[in-house]
Amino acid sequence: MKNRSLSKKYSLWGWIFVAPASLLIFIMSFYPMIRAFHLSLQAGMPGNMRFVGLRNYIRLLEDDLLRTAVGNVFTYLVIQVPIMLFLALIFASILNMKQLKGRGALRTMIFLPCAMALISSAMIFRALFGVTGMINFFLQELGIISSPMLFLTDPFWAKFVVILIITWRWTGYNTIFYIAGLQSIDDSIYESARIDGASSVQQFFYLTIPLLRPIILLTLIMSTNGTLQIFDETFTISPTGIPAVISISQYVYNLFFRISPQLGYASAVSYTILIMVAILTFIQMKVGDRKHEK
Fold first, then answer.
1. Do residues 281 and 73 lie in contact, with contact meaning Cβ atoms separated by under 8 Å?
2. Are 54 and 48 in contact (CB under 8 A)?
């Protein structure tokens, strides 16, 4: 009886300590989500909203600009995320080599872009690829082009710049995860592989990648979620949101602040991001678990 009473006392104190954080999470995260869903069922101007049911969600299916934004985001996702994670794996493998000199400094250098403000890193690339930027200057000096290229407005090159920004900024972030994972792998596994004649490339594909599978899955989910919610990079490249680069988050921003406030419809569009994140995360976890079982 005394042990049971002590257990209840500990449980009560546990809830007391957890309650403030739980309350903050509810107020800052869950309540806005509930309020946004309620708002997505309404239409009208602020202060004069009326219930319209699922009309905003039906409108989603007829919105060409939203389809363009979704297509842009999935283009970034399909092209950028695999490239970024593969580069992060290569960098992590190199930076984990014990014979490499200056590993600490190199790790700091590769992580530095991630420590910069999002808007700052995007503005650097906007300056580089602008009409009077360094890229156009060098291409003209080398005789490759005769007049400046419109990198930031051309549908293909604008996407390329956005992908470049995301890759440059977040590769180092994922590299740190992989380095931590590599340091938890016993060196004897690689020593055995070297004795058996496995090359560095074979060790990378047949040892490193399989052993880091749980961390790769984690970074894949985080990168997917981040890409689906991309805003700063596209906003810096095109503040008005040209169709070539506009993301879903930027479209939501435009609906709230640039076009006459459409709070209900903007909330419905924002829920498309939540639904896509949930579906893709579920698929990735299922596929990852299935591969892990094999």
1. no
2. no
pLDDT tens readout for residues 202-218 = 888 888 888 898 899 88
Residue 245 · residue 237 · CB < 8 Å: yes
> Using one digit for the tens of pLDDT, what is the confidence trace for 28-50?
888 888 888 888 888 887 778 88
Residue with the two structure tokens 């695999």: 82
Q: How far apart are CA 205 and CA 86, in angstroms?
A: 11
Residue entry with tokens 């806005």: 32
What does the radius of gyration of the chain's CA atoms come to, in whole angstroms? Answer: 24
Angle at 186 between CA 95 and CA 287, to 5 degrees: 80
Q: Which of 82, 36, 79 is nearest to 272 (CA)?
A: 36
Distance CA 133, CA 146 (A): 15
Q: In sequence order, what are the residues at sequence separation of 6 or more whose Cβ sits closer than 8 angstroms to the Cβ of residue 36?
A: 267, 270, 271
Q: What is the pTM of this model?
A: 0.84
Q: Return the amino acid letter for 166.
A: I
d(CA 60, CA 127): 35
Task: Mention every residue, 6+ apart, whose C-beta is less than 8 A from residue 204.
Answer: 89, 90, 93
Q: CATH for 56-293?
A: 1.10.3720.10
Rounded distance between C-alpha atoms, residue 263 and residue 174, angstroms:
35
- List the structure tokens of 283: 């698929």
Rounded to whole angstroms, the Cα distance separating 75 from 228 reads 10
Count each helix (H run) and each strand (E run) in the chain, helices first.
15, 2
The residue length of the chain stands at: 294
Q: At residue 88, does pLDDT exceed 90?
A: yes
Domain regions of the chain by residue span: 2-40, 56-293
Residue 104 CB partners (closer than 8 Å, separation 6+):
none
